[in-house]
Specification:
The protein has about 500 residues and is α/β, with parallel strands linked by helices. The protein is about 30% helix and about 20% strand. Strands 1-2-4-5-6-7-8-9 form an eight-stranded parallel barrel. Strands 10-11-12-17-14 form a five-stranded antiparallel beta sheet, with helices on one face. It has a three-stranded antiparallel beta sheet with strand order 13-16-15, with no helix packed on it.
């Protein structure tokens, strides 16, 4: 279905947008705490561990992350430019001075003013993400820089009031839903407590008392946030929920700090109770040990797991190895590597959240569009082995070991033709080969007569791109599948193995 272009006239003025929503942090929190009191969840870990991951999330497997904000204006370093530009020891400090001017005259506030998003078309984005095969879309609603891409009435530093002067999250949520995808959102606000602290150490506008509502608190990273900051953090996050109804709220790191614990419990109880009252199925993403197992969905940044996990988890990573946001010198991954990682993650009961970084004008860079469309083409042919599947008894076989933990995605070994990953649906096992074999025959050891379970009988094997059954032999060394020689390419392939007793 062709989606319409963005019609700016379709969005009502601010007064209409705010109708029916609290205008102050105190009112937002009062509403949230009434929702908590109404149950069924209470703000305790014991209660929150009764949370159940919704089936839609277990089935989705693939989502799109979006880092877009005023940090894209510089196009230098990465999305931490707002902090690095004030750090005299970082190359971004000199770059900012030479490109924009002295830090006490041209600071981050001035990059916000230059962040116009004049070509931002949420419907074009949503159409692209659907073409990529994504099932959910997650824009960064607020990064560490304290500039909200959503409408938060107590703050003047929002995309609705300055910069683009548009409710980016509101417009995108409407477009994503119209495209038939799940809308989700992330909050990286926690780190704002210390994000601009380097600006305290040099002559910069971070020290201007009139700008403390943007740059403050700018405290040392070793310190813990105070009650005022935490209450504002909670109000902002609750506003995201009641205003935009996201199916997931993702939290970046640093919420594992001790000061956040009671507020995390409050937010989770609010969010899960709000969902129950509104017939929604939702999830929270967390990193490190911010939540106990079972109370939310664990996320690994730029990394994977080395084993099958019984409960759903997620990897968030980017198409670029060196930045989440827009920069002029990306080190891009290949679409094949991303598809291989998707397969590995899904085989271990995970979901992949893949990031793109639009330019300051709102256009997604062409290399990233091409990459997404290539992934989408692969999923159109092979998505049956990904979507709506569940892990098999083992996640895979082969010589390549995947390192467990975060920030390992650019260090992994290359997969080989002997590496296979498995997913399943009822009496079907999907066997995904990570590389096309040189001899045109897939040798799958676990499905041989010596290693397969006794009741397992293989009725037929098909390549998902071809309906005809493939020639097979089976012995104690494995199942040997002769592949169509005209189907070879650089991408993984998927076999449908139909079994029966």
């Amino acid at each position: 279905m062709e989606l319409p272009g963005c019609d700016f006239r379709a969005y009502p003025p601010q007064q209409a947008l705010l109708k029916g929503f609290p205008m102050t942090a105190e009112a937002i929190l009062a509403d949230a705490r009434r929702t908590i009191a109404a149950g069924p969840f209470t703000p305790t870990w014991r209660s929150l561990e009764h949370y159940q991951v919704p089936d839609w999330y277990k089935n989705a497997k693939f989502g799109i992350f979006i880092h877009w904000g005023a940090y894209s204006v510089a196009g230098f370093g990465n999305e931490w430019y707002p902090r690095a530009m004030y750090d005299t020891a970082d190359r971004s400090f000199k770059h900012h001075l030479e490109t924009f001017g002295p830090h006490d005259q041209i600071g981050y506030k001035d990059l916000i003013a230059r962040f116009r998003g004049e070509k931002f078309d949420p419907y074009a984005w949503a159409n692209l993400f659907r073409e990529a095969g994504a099932r959910y879309v997650m824009p960064v609603a607020e990064h560490h820089d304290g500039f909200a891409m959503y409408d938060y009435p107590p703050s003047r530093w929002t995309a609705l009031r300055t910069g683009p002067k548009r409710d980016v999250i509101g417009e995108l949520s409407a477009a994503v839903r119209q495209a038939g995808l799940r809308f989700t959102a992330s909050s990286h606000r926690a780190e704002h407590w210390w994000f601009f602290c380097e600006g305290r150490k040099c002559q910069s506008d971070v020290n201007d008392p009139a700008l403390q509502d943007l740059y403050g608190p700018a405290q040392p990273r070793e310190s813990q946030p105070d009650r005022a900051f935490l209450e504002d953090w909670l109000a902002r996050t609750c506003q995201l929920v009641t205003r935009y109804s996201p199916s997931i709220i993702y939290f970046d790191w640093w919420i594992e700090q001790p000061a956040f614990a009671p507020y995390l419990k409050e937010f989770a109880a609010f969010y899960y109770n709000w969902a129950a009252a509104n017939g929604q199925e939702v999830a929270i993403n967390y990193k490190i040990n911010a939540f106990p197992v079972g109370a939310a969905v664990f996320d690994v940044e730029r990394g994977q797991l080395d084993a099958l996990r019984p409960v759903l988890w997620q990897t968030d990573t980017s198409v670029s190895k060196n930045s989440w946001g827009f920069i002029h010198k990306h080190d891009y991954k290949t679409p094949r590597d991303i598809v291989q990682d998707l397969i590995d993650i899904v085989s271990k009961n995970g979901s992949l959240l893949l990031n793109v970084g639009p330019a300051p004008d709102g256009l997604i860079p062409e290399p990233e569009q091409v990459m997404l469309r290539q992934i989408g083409r692969w999923l159109r042919d092979n998505g049956e082995a990904i979507y709506d599947t569940r892990p098999w008894k083992i996640f895979g076989e082969g010589p390549t070991q995947v390192a467990a933990g975060g920030f390992t995605d650019s260090k992994r070994q290359s997969f080989t033709a002997q590496d296979f990953r498995f997913t399943s649906k009822e009496d079907i096992i999907y066997c995904l080969g990570m590389q096309w074999p040189a001899d045109g025959v897939a040798h799958i050891a676990i499905l041989g007569t010596a290693k397969a379970e006794a009741p397992l009988k293989i009725q037929r094997v098909q390549l998902l791109e071809h309906d005809a059954p493939l020639p097979i032999t089976r012995d104690e060394k494995g199942l040997h599948v002769t592949l169509p020689r005209d189907a070879s390419d650089d991408f993984p392939y998927a076999l449908r193995v139909t079994t029966g007793t």
